[in-house]
Specification:
single chain; Porin; 2 helices; alpha+beta; globular; 17% helix; two-stranded antiparallel ribbon
Length: 167
């Protein structure tokens, strides 16, 4: 009888442990994505047909770090670090594209914006006005396409490396 009681108690404990098992990585990512207000990505920025470059040859820059920060006013900011638009650009710049509109579902954030004045070191830079911005963020990927004044159809594609819930 003691063995039967011990066996039943063991089965009860094991059954209770199964119910409290950790979520799968996919379930954890989904929960993290659903609550995330900060995203970090590393990827490639591509500018097609750059003046001064080989005609019809895009200029691509790898390992461009991007941050996306959702704002309290239901917009988001895209921060790009060490970006250039051509091999002849004398210095890489850090740029913020503020006030991007977005909509959110459980598994995707859709980006849109037009006539956005980016900032560099906190100062507006009319020279690179952002138009026709469209893109998405998923748990794995940040992608967007836009024009920077005369640099048309620029694309950024980066793998999400970090997601956080921030206040």
């Amino acid at each position: 009888m003691k063995k039967l009681v011990f066996l039943l108690a063991t089965m009860l404990v094991l059954t209770a442990c199964d119910e409290n098992k950790p979520e799968t990585a996919e379930e954890q990512a989904s929960v993290t994505f659903a609550k995330a207000t900060y995203f970090e990505a590393s990827g490639t920025n591509t500018v097609p047909n750059v003046e001064g470059e080989n005609k019809d040859q895009p200029f691509s820059m790898n390992n461009v770090r991007a941050e996306v920060v959702l704002q309290a006013d239901n917009t988001l900011n895209i921060n790009l670090y060490g970006i250039t638009f051509s091999s002849k650009m004398p210095v890489a710049i850090d740029m913020v594209i503020p006030g991007v509109q977005y909509t959110r579902t459980a598994d995707k954030i859709t980006l849109s914006g037009d006539n956005i004045i980016p900032t560099m070191k906190g100062n507006p830079v009319d020279k690179y006005v952002v138009t026709n911005l469209t893109g998405t963020i998923t748990a794995d990927l940040l992608t967007f396409t836009n024009n920077y004044a005369t640099y048309e159809n620029c694309t950024y594609r980066g793998e999400i490396t970090k997601m956080e819930e921030r206040d």
